[in-house]
Amino acid sequence: MSGAQARSRWSYFQLSADWAATIVADAQVRGGDTVLDLGAGIGALTAPLLDRGARVIALERHPGRARDLRRRFADREVVVVQADIRDLRLPARPFRVVANPPFHLARPLVSQLLAARHLVSADIVLRRDTARNIAAAGGRGRYTTALGRHLPRGAFRPVPSADAAVLAIRRR
């Protein structure tokens, strides 16, 4: 694989503040909810989640971004965990997920969530084609999957090579 391909695979696509607020509103997060923000980046989703009164667990792999999240939200109800999504341990109590994870981790992340015991709901920003394919499968076990809001490439910085969409996971 060329260097350009390897770098793009690990790219971080930051959501604009307006789109992040829209995704959080669509997720119907309420005060007191425990919400995982997986791939938190600089906190585009973290901020509106906290504004809704959620208790946020922000998972960020990059040490500098994790440090910046801790500083930015030092006085808010957020726990910042510097870790890779592939090492994720899910809470043993009811939780939601509102996340913009790295696109290449979509399928293993969704598989883990569909096997979770305490997941209430998940709204995950994925490549649109990936979200459409996973939604078409209809879910698994106690969860359904559906294609949610479409996000144009311009909703991100830097601009990714494909549009995105929200994959909605809900309890049956």
Structure, described:
The protein is α/β, with parallel strands linked by helices and 172 residues long. The chain is 30% helix and 30% strand. The chain has 6 helices and 9 strands, in the order H-E-H-E-H-E-H-E-E-H-E-H-E-E-E. It has helices spanning 3-9, 17-27, 46-51, 63-72, 106-114, 128-136; strands at 14-15, 34-38, 55-60, 78-82, 95-99, 119-127, 143-151, 156-157, 164-171. The strands form 2 sheets. It has a 7-stranded mixed beta sheet with strand order 4-3-2-5-6-9-7, sandwiched between helices. The chain has a two-stranded antiparallel sheet with strand order 1-8. The radius of gyration is 15 Å and the shape is globular. The model is unreliable at 1-9 (pLDDT under 50).
Give a nutshell description of this structure:
By secondary structure, the chain is of the alpha/beta class. Helices cover 30% and strands 30% of the residues.
Derived structural class: alpha/beta
Radius of gyration: 15 Å
The H/E string reads HEHEHEHEEHEHEEE
* Percentage of β-strand residues: 25-35%
Q: Based on DSSP secondary structure assignment, what is the total number of beta strands?
A: 9
Instruction: Please give the alpha-carbon distance between the first and last residues.
Output: 41 Å
**Averaged pLDDT:** 93
Bulk shape: globular
Contiguous low-pLDDT stretches (5 residues minimum) are 1-9
> What is the helix fraction of residues, given as a range?
25-40%
Number of helices: 6
Q: What composes the largest sheet?
A: 7 strands, mixed
Strand order of the largest sheet: 4-3-2-5-6-9-7
